[in-house]
From TrEMBL:
Keywords of the record: Cell membrane, Membrane, Transmembrane, Transmembrane helix, Transport
Chief site of localization: membrane
Protein name, as recorded: Carbohydrate ABC transporter permease
Membrane topology summary: Multi-pass membrane protein
Transmembrane segments: 37-59, 94-118, 130-151, 163-184, 205-227, 263-284
InterPro entries in alphabetical order: MetI-like, MetI-like_sf
Residues annotated as domain ABC transmembrane type-1: 95-284
Family classification: Belongs to the binding-protein-dependent transport system permease family.
Originating species: Gracilibacillus salinarum
Name of a matching Pfam family: BPD_transp_1
Length: 299
């Protein structure tokens, strides 16, 4: 390696170290830094403690009771509750149902909302602004107000107590259309016009040019759609009659009511339902945070 390359590398290292030291000095100048960190740690403990307590209670012997809260965190411990619930209950089936319903709902919602938003944003047709106003009005109507007519429609199509009845009514997302429409509006017009002049059809324009640019918006919508479908209770509770088709939000209250006077079995069932969600959050933490921040930023 030549002397000039070595000198250049040394200059870069020195500049990087100076920048790092400047950042550390800037952080140390904040007189409230320790207070902020302490408050953050206390808030984190406040949110994490119920999860830790749930996990400890779930590994206690069945029927265990105490008047001293400290005893929940001390031996004896056992995994027999997990084995018993996994083998003798429908919780794995409910977990599977929730996963399938949430995944299919998310995929269909992304397809429909992206196509609708692209049409309203980039295609020219009559009354498109009037149609967009209807999507805006859809945000103003509470979901509970549409439950009865929605139930009657699903019942008329004989989709009560089926996966189709769980999924199809949930794929309409006015918020997704509005977010994607605003994103598609920001695509440079020069790119759209040049693609059309080159003979690109609207479908190719959507699939090969606009959609790849909309990955952040699509990720945000996918995250919120999946979480909303996973946590949805009211519609599955009304539209599902068979226990084999219950989702977790419906099945867990039914399971817990059987052990209304006990702690261990309900906590074990809740732990089994929560562990996959916790693992998924740890894996996709960055994407979830980006999705939340994206929905609050224009442009």
């Amino acid at each position: 390696m030549s002397d000039s390359n070595l000198q250049g590398a040394d200059v870069l290292k020195e500049a990087s170290s100076k920048k790092r030291r400047a950042g550390l000095l800037e952080r140390n100048r904040d007189p409230w830094r320790r207070v902020k960190v302490s408050i953050g740690v206390m808030v984190a403990i406040l949110f994490i403690f119920p999860i830790i307590w749930m996990l400890f209670v779930s590994i206690k012997p069945n029927g265990f009771s105490t008047t001293n809260p400290i005893e929940w965190f001390t031996p004896p411990f056992t995994l027999a509750n997990y084995i018993d619930i996994l083998m003798n209950s429908l919780i794995l089936r409910w977990l599977f149902n929730s996963l399938i319903v949430a995944l299919i709902t998310t995929v269909l919602t992304l397809i429909i909302t992206s196509l609708a938003a692209f049409a309203i944003s980039q295609m020219k047709f009559r009354y498109k602004n009037f149609i967009f106003v209807f999507f805006l009005l859809g945000l103003m109507i509470p979901g509970e107000a549409t439950i009865i007519p929605l139930y009657e429609i699903v019942k008329s199509f004989n989709m009560i107590d089926s996966y189709a009845g769980l999924i199809l009514p949930m794929i309409a997302s006015p918020l997704g259309v509005i977010i994607l429409k605003s994103f598609f509006d920001g695509v440079p017009k020069e790119v759209i016009e040049s693609a059309i002049m080159d003979g690109c059809s609207y479908f190719k324009l959507f699939y090969k040019i606009v959609l790849p640019l909309a990955k952040p918006a699509m990720a945000a919508i996918a995250i919120f759609t999946f979480i909303g479908s996973w946590n949805n209770f009211l519609w599955p509770y009304l539209s599902i009659l068979s226990e084999n088709l219950y989702t977790l939000p419906v099945g867990l209250p039914v399971f817990n009511s059987t052990y209304s006077q006990a702690y261990v079995q309900p906590m074990t069932a809740n732990a089994i339902a929560s562990i996959p969600v916790i693992i998924a959050f740890l894996i996709f933490e960055k994407q979830i945070v980006k999705g939340i921040s994206f929905t609050g930023i224009k442009g």
